[in-house]
């Protein structure tokens, strides 16, 4: 299952993603990809939700990956060293081969 995240992932929008992560549809998927290609901004709240999504997927036995986001998003993932612990791919299509 691919969740495309656009715009900003911050204090105001993070609960929407958290809700999607908790959905029963997502729980039954063998793989979860958070598509960040259209994500322009992320703050610490959004980062926490990404990490929670990864942990939740691991607990469910699902594969998990993120696509690359904007320069700001990638910079935050790099500075916080989160990128070292999550699988980051170029596009969701990479996993369909």
Kindly provide the radius of gyration, computed on alpha-carbon positions and rounded to a whole number of angstroms. Answer: 12 Å
Number of helical stretches of at least 4 residues: 4
- N-C termini distance: 15 Å
Beta-strand proportion: 25-35%
- Spell out the helices and strands N to C: EHHEHEHE
Overall shape: globular
DSSP strand tally = 4
Average pLDDT for all residues: 92
Largest sheet: 4 strands, parallel
Supply the helix-strand structural class. Answer: alpha/beta
Determine the fraction of residues in helical runs and give it as a percent range. 25-40%
- Which regions are unreliable across 5 or more consecutive residues at pLDDT < 50? none
Strand order of the largest sheet: 1-2-3-4
Give descriptors for this structure.
four-stranded parallel sheet, alpha/beta, 97 residues, 4 strands
What would you say this structure looks like, in words?
- The protein has 97 residues and is of the alpha/beta class.
- It contains four helices and four strands; from the N terminus they run βααβαβαβ.
- It has a four-stranded parallel beta sheet with strand order 1-2-3-4.
- Helix 1 runs parallel beside helix 3 (44-60).
- The longest helix has 17 residues, at 44-60.
List the helices and strands and how they pair.
Layout: E1 2-9, H1 14-21, H2 24-27, E2 31-42, H3 44-60, E3 63-67, H4 71-79, E4 88-89
């Amino acid at each position: 299952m691919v969740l495309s995240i656009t715009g900003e992932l911050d204090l105001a929008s993070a609960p929407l993603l958290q809700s999607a992560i908790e959905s029963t549809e997502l729980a039954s998927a063998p793989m979860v990809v958070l598509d960040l290609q259209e994500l322009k901004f992320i703050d610490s709240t959004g980062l926490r939700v990404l990490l929670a999504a990864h942990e939740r997927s691991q607990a469910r036995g699902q594969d998990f990956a993120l696509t690359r986001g904007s320069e700001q998003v990638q910079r935050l993932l790099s500075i916080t060293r989160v990128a070292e612990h999550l699988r980051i791919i170029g596009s969701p299509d990479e996993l369909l081969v």
